[in-house]
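Archive entry. Fields below.
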Amino acid sequence: MDTAVLKVDGTNLVERGNLPQVPPATPSRHAEVIRRAAGVIRAGGLVAFPTETVYGLGANALDAAAVARIFEAKGRPATNPVIVHVSDASEVGNVASNWPETASNLAGRFWPGPLTLVVPKAGAVPSIVTAGGATVAVRCPDHPVARALIREAGVPVAAPSANRSTELSPTKAEHVLKGLNGRIDLLLDGGPCSGGIESTVVDVTGGVPRVLRPGLITMPMLEEVCGRVEVGAKGEGVSRSPGQMAKHYSPRTPLVLCESPIEAIRAFERFTAGGKAAWVMTYETPEFAGWEENGDELSASPDRYAAEMYDVLHMLDGSDLDVIVVVMPPDTPEWAAVRDRLTRAAAK
Ligand code: TXA
Ligand code: MG
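PREDICTED_STRUCTURE:
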């Protein structure tokens, strides 16, 4: 059976799938949609919902059986822990056994927002959430639908990105349906996500904070709050991070990464001469002038590029191409998250 879809933009409520028809949207319909979605979460079901980064696939984080359904729907290996979402920083006491000062400083500055903090887990959090580990990743998303849903559910919400494991993350409801239609109970369609790539994950269990996954909260932004910040997990198994797996966030079409527009144009010509259907994905750059009909030019601003990136990749992946030639943006802190995702998307 198709997954039920409810629009939550407040103007245009549509339903399909196994839910009964409801009248057109009004502000109170919006509240009704949130109540129903919260009911699905409380009953142990799966609800995909928009956040400011990407769509999440949510379940009651305190219900091991419900979280197990997330892993099943995504085809996610049990060794990959999931992020627990709260609607307000005041709720972290339910999921964390200790809230270090660094966590409090970072949350104070960046929550609600695209920052996930790894802290010691509370006993109430089932081990499936943390993949058996002693730490839990917590995030307070900056999206009205996400926060209303979590608040109304009255429980912390475990939510990885709402895609099949290793595939492209979803930034639109249609992306979620592409991978998960029929595998989840409900999808809240809140339109496109404004951020576009997954949250920055920071481990604050040690002395110096460690960035486990780069995101829209950049190194310079973190350093402004914490002083010194390190990159990468410390030793193996200490901080397991599925986002750190080489292959992740991948389209089916092969990606070829080039460090300059000139290199990309040469690669494009080579592929085309060899009879391959090639296409360039670049940021806006003067060197690409004259070549626009051979590719998509995304924004030259890291934030806007991030917001467009997965949607463009989803679209190109459905375009019968043999290869997508990518012009890598500059190797600077502002582009770190985008470069990280492109590198993983290109990994075999
Ligand atoms: O923006 C986001 O973070 C989105 C939205 C839905 O909130 N969620 C998301 O979840 O990207 P997921 O499951 O696709 O990625 C989970 C990431 C992993 O890459 C890993 O780095 C980290 O969260 N993670 C989760 N639990 C962890 C833990 N206990 N220790 C270290 N890293 C953890
Ligand atoms: Mg993911």
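CURATOR_NOTE: The longest strand covers residues 115-120.
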